[in-house]
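Quick look at the format.
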Amino acid sequence: MRRLAGSCVALSLVLISCDANLYGPPSDFLDPPDNLRYEVEASGTPGQPAGVLLRWDDDPDASSFRVYSRGSTSEGFSYRAETSSPSFHERGIPQLQYYVTAVGFGGGESDGSAIITVDERLALPKPATLSSISVNGGIYLYWSDNAATSEPLGFRNYRVYSADWDIDANRCLEPWGLEGSTVAPEFQVGALVNGTPHCFAVSAISVEGFESLWSPTRGDTPRDDARNLLVTTRQSSDATAGFRFWRDQNADGKVQVAELGQVLAGSSPQADFSVERDPSGKIFLTPQRNGTTLTVYGSGPIGDLTDIDVAPLSGFSRTAREALVGWGYVFEMDGGDAFSRFGGLRVSHVGQNVVIFDWSFQRDPGNPELTPPR
């Protein structure tokens, strides 16, 4: 069971009174502040928080509050600061223990609040694994969710870090920077230059703010490719939840390279299909644009996108199909003329909020032979 950060504690053989007042005369009119709690700030270095934030319940009868702390149980408490708000922020590595008193408008000071101990043992285990998939202009990261599953009530989020990667020496180069945070065990790092190698690592943050050790590091390089295209679920980010194989922006019927493989909003009526997540967590490919239909290729996983050589003669419908890793799908699309267009797709990864797939498109109107785009 996870311990409460705001409980009064006794360490070793030293007994600490929760209502002890060490400074100033007690007030007959003020109660000690209630619900003292803390939150440390992650710094990127496990075991070395960037600071601590104390909070407690406000008291309209108090003109200010005084904060006391000590670095070990063998020391006495000393005055730290006085504040008019029911909170206190301190930069740097926190003290071991804190308590707070209320000060009345006449200068009297209440007894001390319950003592809190900044307990680094509440840090979560590090993510056990870290994997990646290189995509066009970015890197998709995913890792084991053991930190969250080990302490569901104690988990807050994950932090993702990046650095340059020396491929020849196979080592990550300082400095590291924070890419962002997420509650899901996956993260898309975007806006990267294709061909530039990067290193990545992930840590887990507890509800108290303690940062775990880092996951194993992972090196990867984004690349130009029609494979490993990442599209989000519409429920997580509609702006990148749709895909169109080809869009004739010039209205001349000629396929231009810039018009191939466009990621659109999932709600856009111009998207051939959208990626949808249902309440159970399953993810589906859903035909979106009028004139677009879908069928599953074969009856099981396929080895590669090139296994989809010719579009099936039948079986196309507007029915959504579950996105399954390794499975192939074929789309028949209205080309805006007398001929259909065909597109192939193979799912390479399904996350909580994303699908990554390889795709192909046949430029020749009405031709069912599918080959990866050049």
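Next, a different chain entirely:
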Amino acid sequence: MAKPVTGTAIADPGGRWDIDARHSASCSARRLLAEIRDLASEISSRAAEIEAGRRIPPDLVETLRSIGVFRMLVPRSHGGLELDLPAALEVIGTLARIEGSVGWTVAIGCGGSMFATLLPRGTYDEIYRNRPDVIIVGSSQPVGTAEPTADGWRVTGRWPFASGCQHADWMAGFCVMTDGGKPLPGEGQPQTRAFVLPARDWLIEDTWYVAGLKGTGSHHIVLTDTVVPGANFFDLVSGVPCLPGPLYQAARQVLPLFHGAVSVGMAEGAVDELVDFANTGRQQLRAAVPMRDSETFHGELGRVSAELRAAQAFLRVQAESHWRHALAGRLKDESLLTQGTQTATWLAATCARVADSCFALGGGSALYETSPLQRRLRDLHAAAQHALAQQRNYATAGKLLLGGSIAEHHRNADPAH
């Protein structure tokens, strides 16, 4: 029976992250943020175009690619910037603050570049042979099947929510591994593996007609009886990265914080836009004074700002904790996946409330499609529908706490303590 090839173990408890590496990453992050700020007005001016086209325009994708956003978590060994986690989240959040779908799409592309390190080294080198700015996207739902053949695995499936599929270079899907039509046994459930193929090998079905995050182009992607080499498969849960690097030891643990960074960035954008609206001197119907002179408005804006600051602080603390664990070689701890998911869930709900409040404070004018407040409302509620942000995720965190005292749990969760 054909078997998916697994990666080669390379131990790296963060030892490569020396002073030079830190300096290089810091300089790259500052340069990248400066270039994004220069692009801010162009990106925000195209928000309506992005929504109408239900994708990021190709020329804008290429601009983002050219400044390096899609290589910021690619290893330096392959021409990437290999930023530290807090810096990468700042870049993602900055883009989401400008336009939600852009931030989301970049977050997906960065996640793809991290998951790719779980491939065998030869496959990884082939993907990045010509340039570091390769865009890898996909769907994490295990809705495909893979049957063994002499040349690999015969894959069939139809995967939803493939954000950024229209501008991807490679795409990934998850399969239940089968033999004779019967699922192969895994650890308490059928064996599941992920795989990658060049984007040209996939069919994209135009299905992304949705309420929010319209510009992410998260269509269905399809394969039918397609033979995929075993060397193109990887195990997301127990796979071993083919390259060293603090973040690559457990990409799965980091992904929820990407989601959190997008949520916080979009909420920041909603508050920015509400403040800009109030500063136009707008006076709502039957109001005694303009919004910016209203004590009621001041109080509500102050409350909303407090919620946003709490979200910003939570994301920052969790990102720094994850990064310390990564440098110490402990990122693979399953409790960090639980913590990260708990963080993403709370951030999504909190940031959606921020958008709700901004929309309500905007009054009747916020109803129009020309108002960015209605778009922020829709985008943040769409983000909160993601599996990483569902309220049921709190149950896992609760079970973790019941395994020991709360004080012991928090003491063990952060190596700084």
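The chain has two domains: 1-244, 246-413.

See the schema section for token definitions.
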